[in-house]
Amino acid sequence: MKHMNSEVKEERTSNKKRIDLFLVPIVLIAAFLNLFKIWTDEYANAYYTAAVKSMLQSFHNFFYASFDPGGYVTIDKPPVVFWIQTISAKIFGFHGWSVILPQALAGIGSVLLLYVLVKRTFGVWAGRFAALAMALTPIVPAVSRTNNIDSMLVFTLLVATWMLFRAVRTAKFGWVLAAFAMIGVAFNMKMLQAYMVLPAFYVFYVVATKITWKKKIAFLTTATALMLAVSVSWAVVVDSTSADKRPYMGSSQTNSVLELAFGYNGINRLTGNTSVTGSSHKQPAQAQQQTASSETKQTSNSNAESSQSSNQSKSSSSKKMQAPGGGNQNGMFNTGNPGPFRLFQKGLSDQISWLLPFVIFSIVGLFAGVKFKGPYTTKQKESLFWLAWLLPVAVFFSIAGFFHQYYLIMLAPPIAAFAGVGAVALWSMYKQRNGWKSWLLPGGILTTAALQVYIMSPYVSSIGVAPIAGVGTLGVILALILAVRKERKNAVTNYLGVAAMVVLLAMPAYWAMTPIIYGGNSMLPAAGPDSSSGMGRPPSTATNSKQSGFNGMQPPGSSSGNSSSNNQMQPPSGSSNGGQMQMPGGSSNNGQMQPPSGSSNNSQMPNSSSSKSSSSKRKSGGMNAEVNKKLLNYLTKNNTGEKYLFATTDSTSAAPYIIETGKPVMAMGGFSGSDPILTVSKLKAMIKKGEVKYFYLSGMGKGGQSDVITWIKENSKEIPSSKWQSTSSSSQQGPSGNGTLYEITLK
Q1: pLDDT band at 549, cuts 50/70/90?
Q2: What PANTHER family does this protein's entry cite (predicted)?
Q3: Whether the Cβ atoms of residue 698 and residue 649 lie closer than 8 Å to each other
């Protein structure tokens, strides 16, 4: 033990004197995967990008994270990440890439942090492998290339982990407070999701610190109190502010941050209950789908490869698709069915699970022979930390009723850590001929290669048979050779071990590159050959990549130039029962997915020739929505001093106009149209004050706003479509269907 400690000290001293040259290419790989071509995404996630545009205009909007410049309603998440994005946009100018940049840098930073965390205790090679595994975990760059929150959240939690490890090493209580306070900051990024790491923090501190139980309890209690105080600080300020002096808290039913945190962004994610609770009306299924999360807005990358589009067009609409909780196929948003093997199911496994079998074998080897009562080595204590992070989060995703694929980035740090630690540990056991443990390395290689073949098999039409057969064949051969050569020690065996790790990382590396190769999706980021589709569907069940998700419905004011029945709006590929689509937590209308009620053409999809963007940049954030110039010109010309350019049912129609003009556009029902913000009496008062007079209604996301919409239709003048509706067959495509423009002027 003394000899091992002296070697560790020598290694630390040596590493302080020079840069780890092996780390440099790993960081460059991470930088490429996270940064390359982010400048082509002009809108990113339009819902959040519109908020940044609004937050740039006033401190009031900045503090509350207002979705619109008028301060009508907030976005559905806390503000910290969007404060950072707004600062980035202030420094570099307002662009899609400038709001993505903080998350991309956070993804690179997470790779570096994991290297530092693992290397100190487990050695430099474990740190290198862990960093590389983190960089190549497909969902990590897929999320980091967007302005969604999760990449920044993971980086913040890793910073908190570094503080906790330092607290244990230095025995300084201040670092404990800092670590838990940082979790409080993470709470103000994505609320209860930040608390998923708490079991690891508590277990590690209790096991690793050499102080009395009385001090442990006192320190953890104090640190937890500080964490809670930081967590609710912004919420308390907002909820205690008079409702008429701040925006409505988006996606809540009681205009409360705390209700949003523990309901919509909290317990409802576990139960899958995404129905409207604050409205006397049940949401239509499509509105429920939007309400489930801001990330549920689908989009397609118009730059997806044409060959991929051809493969993806081979879809079958007769397969059943049900929400998490029952049925077969891939569940809502391709998140599989709850159960102990959910993370190995199609749709989730290719995002995060490529190395899971190897991780399981590593955990067995690391904890074999460890006694419950200890004593524990530093390596065992830190391994316990990563295990206490991995297991609860894996259990949550195995049973949760509603989440999106990219939430799985929460599993990336512990999986990557165990991959790096396990690679070194299992190799050591193998070389030392450590009894049955020496078989863990070839066993881990064999089972991991088998899983990777299983993961890739649905994508054979896109990637071909060669990589699948290659991984399977090489994995089996290398595992068998290592098993046979177990008694030999020479350079050939070393090369075989390295070759095996290269084989296991090859396809995750390819999958991590797919958002660059095939195009990404800023609303629902996912990796894979269908990464631009928005639903993460394998090619065998995906629609054409330029029409996937709900892409192809019209923006305000555009009309379809084609009405072929083949282009009609369909539920996500893989559904049956007459197009029924069961929502998480149940839904009205038997879960049937309805087209926009205001559509004049049954929400017909444009053909692929009309869906091609004339711009080299992607406006993927609003389901490929772009501003209808004719509508914008009409509204601008006829504005007589009204505060809002126009009002619409939900954020989908509003976001592109906010981004392009910086003018207030009212999303009457918030994100999905289901927020009970507006009443008829409030709307009358706003109209009389001259704050709004134009209303664009498409039938999308009525939710609890049906009374308001009915009143608008009964008391307004319909504007002839010829005055504002684009008739070009190549008009930009968007989400809102062929709606109607109304004008109301009350005296």
Answers
A1: very low
A2: MANNOSYLTRANSFERASE YKCB-RELATED, UNDECAPRENYL PHOSPHATE-ALPHA-4-AMINO-4-DEOXY-L-ARABINOSE ARABINOSYL TRANSFERASE
A3: yes
